[in-house]
Amino acid sequence: MKVVKFCLLPLILFLVLVVVGGWLWGRSLPDQWTVERSHTIAAPPAEIHPHLADLRAWEAWMVWLEKDPTMKLSYSGEPGVGMSSSWTGKDGNGSQEIIASEVAVGITTRTSFDGFTPFESTIHFAPDGDGTRVTWRSAGTASNWGERVFGAFADDLMGPDFEGNLANLDRVVTAAE
Length: 177
Prior knowledge:
Blueprint: H1 2-28, E1 32-41, H2 45-48, H3 50-53, H4 63-67, E2 72-76, E3 84-89, E4 92-102, E5 106-113, E6 119-128, E7 131-141, H5 145-176
Antiparallel strand pairs: 1-7, 2-3, 3-4, 4-5, 5-6, 6-7
């Protein structure tokens, strides 16, 4: 019995400390998160915008289909404000709706993933020499411990995908010229 107490009690205490410490760490994290990446495309906004305002066109450049070729997508509405897409894939299910769209400015979407608080993203245009600086920014508010932990790693998790998406968008837009 002494051996059990000697071995089991420290293990239980260690596990309690890990759980409580993890919970306290998660609670101490900010409740806001932001991911932003930019890329300059040698084209005017009017040539870029159609590839964003029609969510069906995203299939030609989004890296998520490269990562999950089994992803199932469905669409509703016409290109522009009100168009939406939904998906099911190996990493979960979600939906996205365009809530603002201007040819000279870019688009804003509201995105929802199962189990997470919805968040907004903007893909914004700004002049950059002879091209257009395209900036993709997503920001959200964590409503629970898990989302706070996600927010701590959001830039590392989502940033490389934004970079890949913008590079692919550049290839698609410039190939269409």
